Amino acid sequence: MSAPAVIEVSGLTKQFVKDDLGIVAVRDLDLEIAQGGFVTVLGRSGCGKSTVLNLLAGLTTPTSGTIAYRGRPVAGPRTEVGYLTQSDTLMPWRSVHRNVELPLEIGGVPAQRRRERAAELIEKVGLQGFERHYPRELSGGMRRRVSLARMLAGDPETLLMDEPFGALDAQLRAELQAELLRLWGESGQTVVFVTHDIEEALLLGDRVVVLGRVGRVVLDRPIGLPRPRDADELRVDPEFVALHRELSQALREGAR
Ligand SMILES: Nc1ncnc2c1ncn2[C@@H]1O[C@H](COP(=O)(O)OP(=O)(O)OP(=O)(O)O)[C@@H](O)[C@H]1O
Predict the structure, then answer these.
(1) Are residues 61 and 165 in the same domain?
(2) Which of 56, 92, 165, 242 meets the CB 3.0–4.6 Å disulfide criterion with 173?
């Protein structure tokens, strides 16, 4: 039996108004995200990926269409859903440690447990030694990692991630991808991961949804590559090469 849908999107349209002109960012999108899946959403810049995630997170409302989370209409942000946005949302007046602790503080977790959990997560994202630094004292990549740790601190059942590793160097990206997969494998969390990188989409996802202009689904296919997936080995794997070609073709088609 297939896993129940956590997110169900139907006929989703989002139009922005700028200088009296309507800009359609997403038109008539249908999408179901099954519980426990790792879905990568692949698309070129401007195709509406962030808009879709903002809508799924309940940060903006659809112009038309519906979004349901576990069968209930999405009416705003919810604690079960963690969202790692493209832009930096760390609190500048809080140290790394205090930023990571924030969701635990909001959740009423006692101070001692909070400290331990935050320390664990800071280590996981490779930032031990920087606990007392402030966001302005960190590189862009380090700030992304703090944001990742903060999101994980809330222990959300669903993770929405908008190009979380795009700004990182290749080595660190590979390490955090592996860490994310490990966490996902252990937790049964549902992940919707936006990227414009074909290789990343294939390394991570058990399903890839390719979006074209205005969020049109150009391709939606399961990825059966065995795990763990090693980038160096995959690059010479005929199945991976064929998938890479298929996604590349879909991206081109989506741009039309
Ligand atoms: N607040 C807004 N007001 C007006 N137009 C917007 C707004 N947000 C997004 N858009 C427009 O909607 C379209 C989709 O933008 P979106 O940020 O969702 O794309 P994206 O696929 O995430 O791009 P990227 O990969 O570059 O982040 C773009 O044409 C963008 O200009």
Answers:
(1) yes
(2) 165
Residue 47 Cα to ligand 1 midpoint, Å, equals: 7
133 plus 64 within the same structural domain: no
Q: Quick: pLDDT tens for 96-127.
A: 999 999 999 998 999 999 999 999 999 988 89
Q: Where are the beta strands (DSSP E) in 19-92?
A: 21-34, 38-43, 64-69, 72-73, 81-84
Task: Take atom 30 of ligand 1 and give the residue whose Cα is closest.
Answer: 46
Of 12, 16, 85, 214, best ligand 1 pocket probe by most atoms within 8 Å of the beta carbon: 16
Q: Are residues 35 and 57 in the same domain?
A: yes
Residue 51 alpha carbon, nearest atom of ligand 1: 18
β-bridge pairing 21-34 and 5-18: antiparallel
Quote the ipTM score. 0.97
CATH number of domain containing 31: 3.40.50.300
Q: Where are the alpha helices (DSSP H) in 83-206?
A: 96-106, 111-124, 140-153, 170-187, 198-204
120 contacts: CB under 8 Å, gap ≥ 6: none
